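User: If only I could read backbone structure tokens as easily as an amino acid sequence. Those tokens are not coordinates but codes from a learned vocabulary of shapes. Could you go through the record with me and say what the backbone is doing? Here is the record:
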Amino acid sequence: MKRALIFPFILLLPLMSVMADDRIMIMLDKVHMSNDTFELPIAFENDENIKVVSCAFEISTTGEAIAHFVNGGAYVAPDSRAYASLLFSFKYFPSGSFHPDTFYIVNWWWGDIDEPITPGPLEIMFYVPVFCGEYPNGPENPDDYIPSGAGEICIDSCTIDHPHYEWIWVLGGGLPDVHPTFNDDEGPHCIIYSDFCGDANADLVVNISDAVHIISYIFAGGEPPALLESGDADCSGSISISDAVMIIRYIFVGGNAPCDTNGDGEPNC
């Protein structure tokens, strides 16, 4: 009789471990360079009540991209599970403090005053502003503004060397502190920041693969251009075979550059 009771329980153990899924994800892959400021959506997935959130994110860049977290403007996503827990604070650590460029989100559970974050699937909980570009002498000197170039803006989790700024969740029900998985693989999440017209596959260069990408999208049901604005090489407002033709002519016969429809060296869209 005892074996009959134990055996089904043993079968459930692998299933129980699969069901447990606590993670934090960045829900953004691409940003067009026409946006010098954008909101970084941070999502949670948790299978227990979360009483305390304490997590930090650092920003780095590749290529010619310039990006910084913004001190102020972060907010809890309306109608999210985190919205009932109103006592969140957001703190920005500029370059040269703890990490290169770090943003910290924390709430402390105050019992009846606020509510824990209830279990649920992946859902955007916070929006954190990111500024692309730089004011080397401060925003009070706008003439010194340096715009960001193309590249990648990478977000990673980090632990700040401070007694209250650990990368941690504290769950309800007496469970121990948890370090949730960040982006499934614990690695940085890199966002493509590009405005290369004709760069349909968002690899930050214009070449024959962009024309192939557009042709595959039109005729074979392939993926659409990663950035629709960059795939619209002829500035028609839509993606068509003429965009691929313009890219091919530009690469092989010295035709006008993508988006330079009149050949004056300036983009027309």
In short: Residues 50 and 171 are 4 Å apart (CA to CA).
